[in-house]
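Hey, I'm writing a tutorial for new members on how sequence and structure tokens pair up, and I'd like a real worked example in the thread rather than a made-up one. If someone can provide the structure for the chain below, I'll link this post from the tutorial.
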Amino acid sequence: MKYRFGEKIRTVRERRGMTLKGLAEKAGVSESLVSQIERNKVSPALDTLLSLIDSLDIDLEHFFSEYRRERVAKIVKADARNSFSRPGVVYQRLAQMDPTSTGKDVIEAYEIKIEPEAKTGSTEYGHEGSELGLVVEGSAELTVGTATYLLEPGDSVSFASDFPHVVHNKGKKMLRLFWVVTPPKPEGASRS
């Protein structure tokens, strides 16, 4: 993202009735530099930007408020979702956060469709992380470790993924789940 400070600096300078030369002298920079910054021809060094902000008596918090609110959202269109399947189970990736862009814990989210009598997961091993699921349609039998739970539409569940876990569709119609995993599992690894 390219920040464009120039318009804001020019607007405040003009509202205060200050000339380019007056601002430049007060900030200790050249008039030419202020002109280039205001026209977004150059990006100011941090100390220069702070000097201009101080010279205009702009509240630092206010000056940067719009930049703090801007965030990049990654959109996945319904017809562009990555999907993969196993017998009786279809996963569609809804989203996966990129850890390099967020610098925080990351998640991936799926819509999972499980045919009657099909299941996903493993009774032998778990994996690092946590999971959260929501039953959208159908009924699910979830086994985590040695405990088994019956989940109906609208029910949600969260658990540590390091226990073996299996989601089984024991119903007579398609089971549809919204499922979130953190951290994301490597491509090709079995899910849930």
